[in-house]
Amino acid sequence: MSALSAPSLRIESVALPFAGPPAIAAARPGGAVVLALAARDAGGGLLGIVAGRRRRNASVLRLTAWEADGAASAMLAEAFVQTAQDQGVLAIRAADDLAAAHPVFGLEPTGRGYAQRWLGTVLPCDPRIGVFTQTTGFTCGPVSLAMALHRNVTRHQEIALWREATTVIGVAGPGGCDPYGLALSAARRIDDVTLYIDTEEPVLLDRANTPEKRDLMRFVQGEFKAAAQEALKVVPRAFRMEELRDAVAGGAQVMLLVDQCHTHDHSAPHWVLLHAVAGDVFLVNDPWMEVDDGEVPADCDCLPMSAQALWTMGSYGSPPYRAAIVLT
């Protein structure tokens, strides 16, 4: 592909993996989309290279590699931005350790470990929203709630909320939090909590591998459900995306249960936090950082995601059910 060209300079896609410098990995199956462009002179000599990764269903591209000088620098950056826009990217960001790219791409510091540039409508991230990635494989719900409550989340808060709200007994050890237990924990700290859930059956039972574990989960979840129906508003139907949009636009935050297969390469129940909206685009904080796919904290924070993508993601189980907790 030739995005931009000059008599002595051409921009082209890079075949991945690229041995470098800098080295750039190819996309993993089911993982992030990787975009890489190179600037070359008339003789094919390399004058600059840029690469970025885009998590599935998120509309932000994080720069992962940048090396260019002189005339190639501005032209390469311009071509990269244009290509990103053509692919539906709404924002470009780079972590603070790639500071050399910030001025070239017009990125502004966010105070959240990365700099960013919006390519259209600006959707600011509330500085009160926490920045934190879960330290276990099962504390996504507590971390989502903690990020709604605290700017500076700690592992103490993560684990304390998990101990309070957990129902699930995992196949190989501890497990996560069901909608009722998590909503109860929220209601102890927030005055107005609404739980949408469109099934009367116990949920997440697929996470246990013996009848004894599933029986205990049913019992604990039954206790949580009864307490939740007394302590907060439980709406026994699926949420509508316009309801979530109106709530977030009015200042609420939403913990949404999703199937992780839509962001990574495996199916699992997972909680994320919706906390800002503009038109059809929400800002989402995801507690999970997929290290094996090259993710860093900047890939999980304040992610622009479409309402349609979130609706598709927000269904789990067989038969499928939906759950969302609105924190007003």
Offer a few descriptive terms.
328 residues; Aminopeptidase; Cathepsin B, Chain A; eight-stranded mixed β-sheet; elongated
Fold and architecture overview:
Helix 3 packs across helix 4 (155-165) and helix 5 (179-187) packs parallel to helix 6. The strands form 2 sheets. Strands 1-2-3-4-5-6-8-7 form an 8-stranded mixed β-sheet. Strands 10-9-15-11-12-13-14 form a 7-stranded mixed β-sheet, with helices on both faces. It has helices at residues 70-86, 102-105, 140-149, 155-165, 179-187, 211-231, 241-249, 307-313; strands at residues 5-6, 9-13, 33-41, 46-54, 60-68, 91-95, 108-109, 114-118, 193-197, 233-235, 253-259, 269-278, 281-285, 303-306, 323-327. Strand 12 and strand 13 form a beta hairpin. Mean pLDDT is 93; it is low at 1-5. The chain has 2 domains: 5-118, Aminopeptidase; 140-327, Alpha-Beta Complex (Cathepsin B, Chain A), CATH 3.90.70. It has 8 helices and 15 strands. The protein is α+β, with helices and mostly antiparallel strands and 328 residues long.
